[in-house]
């Protein structure tokens, strides 16, 4: 029984896992096929534009990798189905054994019922009881025996139904596997065809190697020349910025010096104006302190006298005269306490007035200093670029595109004897794509390249972003731009593809743009 329960639990757990894994793999394959369809669309658009471009070859390689991933997922799904078929068969075998046992037991029940000769023998069995109690027990026994027969028959029916359901599920898994194998064969055929397409494309590259190598080297020469221009412009920008900063620093220092002198004069005037008032308040406070001290001492004296008279009255006989003196003493003590409280309140008010005057004087000095500094053009806050603070969160320079060349020294995807030196990344885009600024800044320069394309440089404090290989430009030098502002339309590269060359510079050093943009 325990083995049966364990087996059933195992089947159930596998079924749940199989269902989840199968659904997950199918969903993943659906997503992969969508990506493949999109790549096919892109390839159809770019094939007429650039037969021998790296972006085209990159898309072919990417599509082939996705196809292979779909095939791998299909293999996993097939193994799950095969495991399911195997476990279903084990379940069918177990259920058949149980059904055989149930049928054997039921046959024995029917044989015993036949031997009892049917209803007539049942009546005789009941009537032959010695008393009514025994007859009732025999009736109950016969009823339970009949229910037992029905129960066994129902167990056989249920077992047969379970076997039928398990067989149906197994047949469904077998059909799923057959369907999967057909699709897998189609996928394999497609993969082989696309591998052949890739090999043919690489062969075309090899066939045109000399021409493409010459064009590539020309492009590299142009890139080097552009890099020299960029470095010169950035160096000049830095020199100008330093000179402006130095002049600004000196001007600010002179402004601050003059402002401090004026501020000190204004504070001295405020100090003189408030000195007389402070002296008057100090006299009032001192008088209040003296009065408070006298009142306190008088109250203490009155309290001591009252205590003494109270003690004497307790020893002497009370009379009307003593009572009058006592009332008079109490009144005098209360008056002394009232004067003490009044004097204390005056002292508190005097001290508060002095504190208020001091605060007013300090506030006036600060306000005067701020006003003087502002009049002299001295700003306490320093504006700066927060470009660096947004590292990793900058926008992407195009709405849609694929990176074909990465930053730094990279081997050519086809010609292994050529190493490319990239100061940025190259992004393959659809025709008509607009490049956009990744961060607010000022257009530093718009350069015309020797191949007819243009380059836009945008300054962000000590950082620069560069958008090269533009067919047309939408901005001009000195223009303020926001994040997302279109800077130009991406132009066609020497291999026919539309490619944006995007760079990020920190001062005079190019850095990997992928460490800055959100991609």
Automatic annotation (TrEMBL):
The answer to whether keyword Nucleotide-binding applies is no
Q: Where is this region: Disordered?
A: 300-336
Per the record, the coiled-coil ranges are 15-49
| Domain M23ase beta-sheet core stretches | 421-513
Spell out the Pfam families in the cross-references.
Peptidase_M23
Q: What InterPro entries is this protein classified in?
A: Cell_wall_metabolism_enzyme, Dup_hybrid_motif, M23ase_b-sheet_dom
SUPFAM superfamilies per record:
Duplicated hybrid motif (SSF51261)
Q: Which PANTHER family match?
A: L-ALA--D-GLU ENDOPEPTIDASE, PEPTIDASE-RELATED
In Swiss-Prot or TrEMBL terms, this protein is called Peptidase M23
Source organism (scientific name): Chryseobacterium glaciei
